[in-house]
Amino acid sequence: MICSFFVHFQASGVTVSDEVIKVFNEMKVRKSSTSDEVKRRKKAVLFCLSDDKKKIIVEAGKEILVGDVGESVDDPYASFVKLLPLNDCRYGLYDATYETKESKKEDLVFIFWAPEGAPLKSKMIYASSKDAIKKKFTG
């Protein structure tokens, strides 16, 4: 019984939607853009499983745009954390900016969110599908 559970757990068969890959590629590219393009770029975004649990998709309405920072969003990280559900799992991308002694840095951070209150089945499928999304995020 444990062996069959383990094999099923390892291979979830979940795929990643093209929209998720597109969002990742748009967030990682930092080429010079017009100020309007920069404002529309995502600062943070959440991904979830589709209703049939077969595909990782962009979660509608769960994003923060660069243009929102300083306008409707004072603290982008705190606002991002508030987007995360208390009782379910999610994947997220956060465009972190920070300063070192030498310079200002930007890194795209992948987040796997699995809160204690999430159902065990959700934790299992998100955990076993994490590699599928990470493999699509190249660079």
Automatic annotation (TrEMBL):
<keyword id="KW-0009">Actin-binding</keyword>
<dbReference type="Pfam" id="PF00241">
    <property type="entry name" value="Cofilin_ADF"/>
</dbReference>
<feature type="domain" description="ADF-H">
    <location>
        <begin position="13"/>
        <end position="139"/>
    </location>
</feature>
<protein>
    <submittedName>
        <fullName>COF2 protein</fullName>
    </submittedName>
</protein>
<dbReference type="InterPro" id="IPR002108">
    <property type="entry name" value="ADF-H"/>
</dbReference>
<comment type="similarity">
    <text>Belongs to the actin-binding proteins ADF family.</text>
</comment>
<dbReference type="InterPro" id="IPR029006">
    <property type="entry name" value="ADF-H/Gelsolin-like_dom_sf"/>
</dbReference>
<dbReference type="InterPro" id="IPR017904">
    <property type="entry name" value="ADF/Cofilin"/>
</dbReference>
